[in-house]
Structures are given as structure tokens and as C-alpha cells.
Design a protein that fits this description.
This protein is mainly α and 285 residues long. It has a domain at 45-139: Serine Threonine Protein Phosphatase 5, Tetratricopeptide repeat (Alpha Horseshoe). It contains 14 helices and no strands. It has helices spanning 2-11, 18-35, 44-57, 61-74, 79-93, 98-118, 123-137, 142-162, 167-181, 185-195, 203-216, 221-233, 237-248, 257-270. The protein is globular and about 90 Å long. The termini are far apart.
């Protein structure tokens, strides 16, 4: 016990030596901690990411964003955290409007680009960048739209190259080609004159991409809905109606599926079978 007292007094100096003790021991220690912070224990971010994924699955995007921001504090250079934040912001933007909608799109673009910058071999960064650009294009002038669509198609192409099973990239690509397919000859001519042209592609490319999306993820309502409206645009009403019917039976997995399901029901109410042979026809993929 006396030995312990002696050791204690040797470590904690008398008042006269306190300034010297702070200058020689504590100050360098604090500087070292600031310059070389102790990293969080491994596995912390992984647990937070798992909880964030669960929040996304239950369509609680605010909780997911808060969790991902916490993970980002721990691991600011983790590309996975950045693309997951981009995903949350896109999913939130789909069901918001006005300034909030714009803020989500800007954040989605920022985080997706950060993910690509940190690891260009990950498909998800390109996929969610394309999603953000697609929504941004809806708010822009024609000239800027064309630039964004070029980048969007490039991003989806890169995503599919890196991950051929990326159904979301195929779906976004298909929706973009559908929009391009609705651009008439005169509009293309004007765009070529004023802006250098419209990206190649149309209904044929749209159908190919959307059918691949449906093949890869048949349970996703968006993929079947987008294919259905494309078929209706192409005048293939029987096929479009069957695809809408199948889409209407799928579960709500993201927030935008709620208004999407309402639109599907409205379209089905408007569509009328052109012949009785629709009754009992099998579903198409």
C-alpha cells in the first residue's frame, strides 16, 4: 500500500509542477489524438448499414438517412455509405416536391459522385447517379436535358458493364429510351440544329432494357409498370394491359409504389380489352 501511494504521487505532480506536467505530457498527447484520431472499432459501420437497410425496407427514409449520416461520420471515405445515401435521397425525392425535392436530388447526385470517386468499380454509384440525373432532367431546359440524358445513359451503361444483374440500371435506361422514343422527327431535327442532336435510341431499345429489368427482378412493380406504359405507347394494348394487371398484384416495396399503384389502377380502368381472347390469357414475363 505505501508503495502504491508513492507511485501515485510520482505520476501526479505537486501544484508547483502542474504547468510543466501539462506542457510536457498532456499537450503532446492531445495534439497526437487530433492528428491521428483513433479509428472506431471495426464492424460499427457495418451494423449501422444493416440497420439503415432495414429502415429502407420498411420505407422509413428519414431514419435510414440519419443512420447513414452517423455511419458517414465514422467512415467518411466509404463508397458504400455514399451510394446508400444517394439511394435514400432518390427514393425520398420520388415522393416529395418543391425545394425539398430539389435538395434530395442534389444530395443524391453529390453522394453518388462521391461513391464513384472513391471506388469507380462499384456499379451502384453509377446507377443512383443515373436516377438522380433522370429526375433532374425533368426540371431542366431542353439543352440541359440532352446533356443530362447523355450522361445518364453513360452511367447506366457503366453500371451494367460492372454488374450485368443491375435491374435498376436497366429500368432507368429503359425509361430513358422510352422518353427518347416519344421525340418526333421534327423535334429531333430542331434539337440537332440547336443542341447538336438527341441521343440515339427509342422504343426498341426501351423494350429490350425493360424486359431485362423484369427478368432480373420480376417482383419490382416499377419495372413492369414502365414496360406496360411503353407497350401502350407502342399501340400494343393487350400486352400493356396484361403487364399492368401483373404489376398491380406486386407488393409495395418503395414509397413511390403507392402513387404508382394508383396510376396503374387508373390505367386499367381506362383500358378496355379489344377482344374476348384476353380472358384467361397467360401472363408474360
Amino acid at each position: 500500500m505505501p508503495g502504491a501511494l508513492i507511485a501515485y504521487h510520482e505520476v501526479i505532480p505537486a501544484d508547483a509542477d502542474l504547468d510543466q506536467f501539462l506542457a510536457l505530457v498532456l499537450l503532446p498527447l492531445l495534439i497526437a489524438l487530433l492528428l491521428f484520431p483513433i479509428p472506431p472499432p471495426e464492424g460499427d459501420s457495418a451494423g449501422i448499414l444493416a440497420d439503415a437497410d432495414l429502415a429502407v425496407a420498411r420505407i422509413d427514409y428519414r431514419a435510414a438517412e440519419e443512420l447513414l449520416q452517423l455511419a458517414l461520420v465514422q467512415s467518411p471515405s466509404d463508397p458504400v455509405i455514399h451510394w446508400k445515401l444517394a439511394r435514400v435521397h432518390v427514393l425520398s425525392a420520388e415522393v416529395t416536391s418543391g425545394e425539398v425535392h430539389l435538395l434530395h436530388l442534389r444530395a443524391a447526385e453529390k453522394h453518388s459522385r462521391a461513391s464513384i470517386a472513391l471506388d469507380a468499380s462499384r456499379a451502384e454509384g453509377y446507377t443512383w447517379l443515373a436516377a438522380a440525373l433522370g429526375y433532374r432532367a425533368l426540371l431542366c431546359s431542353t439543352g440541359e436535358q440532352l446533356e443530362l440524358l447523355e450522361e445518364l445513359l453513360g452511367a447506366t451503361e457503366m453500371a451494367i458493364l460492372l454488374d450485368p444483374t443491375d435491374d435498376i440500371a436497366y429500368s432507368i435506361r429503359g425509361s430513358t429510351f422510352r422518353a427518347l422514343g416519344r421525340v418526333g422527327w421534327f423535334q429531333r431535327s430542331v434539337a440537332a440544329l440547336l443542341f447538336g442532336g438527341v441521343p440515339d435510341g427509342g422504343f426498341q431499345e426501351a423494350e429490350s432494357a425493360l424486359r431485362e429489368a423484369v427478368h432480373l427482378a420480376p417482383e419490382i412493380m416499377r419495372h413492369r409498370y414502365e414496360l406496360a406504359v411503353l407497350l401502350l405507347d407502342m399501340g400494343r394494348e393487350s400486352e400493356g394491359r396484361r403487364m399492368l394487371t401483373t404489376a398491380s398484384s406486386l407488393p409495395v416495396l418503395i414509397a413511390s409504389d403507392v402513387p404508382r399503384l394508383e396510376t396503374i389502377r387508373e390505367l386499367l380502368a381506362e383500358q378496355h380489352p379489344s377482344s374476348p381472347d384476353l380472358v384467361g390469357e397467360g401472363e408474360e414475363e
